[in-house]
Give the backbone structure.
Amino acid sequence: MRLFIRCIEGEVQLGPGKIRLLELIDGHGSISEAARAMDMSYRRAWLLVADLNKDFREPVTSTQTGGKGGGHAKLTEFGRDLIQRYRTIERDAAAAVADQLSALNADIARP
């Protein structure tokens, strides 16, 4: 059994999907490549990134528009900090509830 953390404040939502998208953008340097890696449309990925950039006081990405070599995207320092903060919350929460998750897992009916 796994624990998934979704942080919500009003209309702002941050969860494992958006964090993974940011990690892939960081690794690929491209929103389109990150979207492909997640089997997601470029438009959907672009909209998620736009939401993140709008939802926080600082942008999580900076982009360079396409051209001969194509566009590029990279995480800002704030974007990297956001990933780190989220992953820390995830690890701390998982550690705090590990015994209970283990008990739940043991109670699952298996054929």
Q: What stands out?
A: Residues 52 and 95 are 27 Å apart (CA to CA).
